[in-house]
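Example: SRPBCC family protein.
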Amino acid sequence: MSGWRWTAAGAAAVAAVVTAGLAAAVLAAGRRLPVEHVSEGGLELDRPPDEVWDVLTAVDFFPAWRPGLAHVERLPATAAGHPRWREYGKHGHTTYEVVESAAPHRLVTGIADPDLPYGGTWTYVLTPAGRGCTLTVTEHGEVYQPLYRAVSHYLTGEGATVHRYLSALAQRMAAAG
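Written out as structure tokens, the predicted fold is:
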């Protein structure tokens, strides 16, 4: 009786076919997802809006309270005079700029690097509430590459960045208390 034999080459071929199939499925799923997404999160803080505003806009101090951020480099302002900076982390760097600023109630920042596989803006709204304030952060994100869209949507979640930011900010504000 002739038997089927499993070989290392056969196992490698099966693994390659399975990997290619999974990659194709992930890309197909990513292509079906929209490029744009909106994520929102909020936080109640026992600090007045102007105090929270100071933390939100103190770019040089971001690495002290935002996990994963190694350092920040200030860049020349835009032609309209808006501040710009570059954040460095374990996955490289991203350039940001202030798009709109109405202290201490509304701040809009945006990615100012068109070569990245993602982009978008973040709107921070501070609303007085008793002795403190409520902060709402809305991300209007764009993920241009289908693979990144699929990973963002199915694995990490589009709102992950907003929620990580709010968690770090809550810890920062509690430490200042």
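Helices lie at 8-32, 49-57, 62-65, 146-156, 160-176.
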